[in-house]
Design a protein that fits this description.
It comes from Aquimixticola soesokkakensis. The chain is of the alpha+beta class and about 190 residues long. It contains 4 helices and 6 strands. The protein is about 55% helix and about 15% strand. The strands form 2 sheets. Strands 3-4-6-5 form a 4-stranded antiparallel sheet, with helices on one face. Strands 1-2 form a two-stranded antiparallel sheet.
Length: about 190
């Protein structure tokens, strides 16, 4: 009977991988002093009666290392896009040139770099919590399987597998955080 009881490690790994990809997306939105189109991803514009991402109302380009441009397709939305960027908290002052909005990326000062490393650390902690929640779900599956007749040896084996997978993803989160903090602090 214990041969029929299986814990879906692939599902747990897939869910932990989801936490990692979410972390990478959040890290991409952090400004590091270099221009990146992804830094505008979290900004929504009130367009056509609904909140719309900036990349769906215009073309986002990075022509220079310290410049992002947005070529807004609808002239009527230029003001709304500019307002959304100003209110986003990115600390960027948009400059208008017809339907093109230019975003010069200023140098980060030491204080702002430290703040960004703290934000990155909080993103990483959220990812760790997500990974641990997936681990807890896996351990709950093992407890249910033990109640359904899994042997104690199989229980220990599966618990070890789940813990090993969890440790692997926690190390990946820590490594990603370390890289991002080094990138932020780089002058």
């Amino acid at each position: 009977m214990s041969d029929e009881i299986e814990i879906d490690l692939d599902d747990l790994s897939r869910r932990m991988e989801g936490a990692m990809s979410s972390l990478k997306t959040e890290f991409a939105s952090l400004r590091t002093g270099r221009a990146s189109g992804s830094m505008l991803d979290p900004i929504m514009v009130d367009a056509y009666g609904s909140s719309t991402p900036i990349n769906q109302v215009g073309t986002v380009n990075v022509p220079e290392p310290r410049m992002v441009t947005i070529n807004v397709w609808d002239k009527g939305l230029v003001g709304k896009v500019e307002k959304a960027i100003r209110e986003s908290g990115l600390g960027i002052n948009p400059q208008l040139n017809g339907t093109i909005i230019m975003l010069p990326i200023p140098e980060l000062n030491e204080e702002r770099r430290r703040e960004l490393t703290k934000v990155a650390a909080s993103y990483a902690e959220h990812a760790r919590v997500s990974v641990r929640n997936v681990r807890r779900d896996g351990m709950d599956q093992i407890k249910k399987a033990k109640a359904a007749g899994m042997s104690e040896d199989d229980q220990k084996l599966w618990e070890g597998e789940v813990q090993e997978t969890t440790d692997k993803y926690i190390k990946m989160v820590d490594a990603a955080l370390e890289n991002k903090q080094a990138e932020i602090m780089q002058v």
